[in-house]
């Protein structure tokens, strides 16, 4: 049962519903991240359908969170940041969906960058795991600084992989403007996922301070 630990929580039942919705939202983000990783690993563009379904579910969860906050869950001082967190999680799912769509339009990834892209997808999955742990720390009254530090470290690792991909791009023969455009959009979306996860972690830190 959800415990009323933080002073900004009122009652408890409505807040528990919102907390559970957030947990479900991050779980859907985790599923989508893992599915994208599998799609790249197995070169299976058909997994795009699963990711689109997860994104739609995430959008429903975001609306349910908004409705719960509007109906009075949590005090007004934290509702705005909680809704912004729901938006950021939804934007993460949108980026994963976009990445999946662009991947489905490519005729596979060039060997020069395939392993690097897969590594980024793997790191994104790990970052979502840390994000889930950080969110749990909000209401379990435990320290979340180690989780957010790990997220930032993984983001820096992705920055390094991005530079390697840019260097490898000179080795790739692009056959048409559209092929090059789709590849660049795929890479941009894939790399941007970690930025949104880091933004979500930063907001969780803000919530942690405001709920003390």
From TrEMBL:
Pfam families xrefs: PhoU_div
Domain of life: Archaea
Transmembrane segments: none
Database matches in InterPro entries: DUF47, PhoU-like_sf, Put_Phosphate_transp_reg
Family: Belongs to the UPF0111 family.
Protein name in UniProt: TIGR00153 family protein
């Amino acid at each position: 049962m959800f415990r009323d630990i933080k002073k900004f929580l009122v009652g408890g039942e409505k807040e528990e519903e919102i907390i559970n919705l957030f947990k479900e939202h991050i779980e859907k983000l985790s599923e989508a991240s893992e599915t994208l990783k599998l799609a790249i690993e197995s070169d299976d563009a058909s997994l795009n359908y699963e990711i689109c379904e997860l994104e739609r579910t995430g959008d429903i969860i975001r609306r349910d969170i908004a409705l719960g906050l509007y109906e009075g869950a949590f005090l007004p001082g934290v509702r705005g940041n909680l809704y912004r967190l729901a938006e950021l999680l939804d934007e993460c799912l949108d980026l994963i969906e976009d990445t999946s769509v662009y991947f489905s339009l490519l005729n596979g990834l060039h060997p020069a960058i395939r392993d690097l892209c897969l590594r980024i997808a793997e790191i994104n999955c790990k970052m979502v795991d840390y994000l889930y742990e950080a969110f749990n720390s909000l209401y379990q009254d435990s320290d979340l600084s180690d989780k957010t530090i790990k997220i930032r470290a993984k983001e820096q690792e992705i920055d390094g992989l991005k530079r390697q991909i840019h260097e490898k791009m000179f080795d790739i023969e692009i056959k048409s403007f559209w092929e090059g455009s789709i590849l660049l959009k795929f890479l941009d979306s894939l790399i941007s996922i970690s930025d949104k996860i880091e933004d979500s972690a930063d907001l969780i830190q803000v919530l942690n301070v405001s709920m003390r």
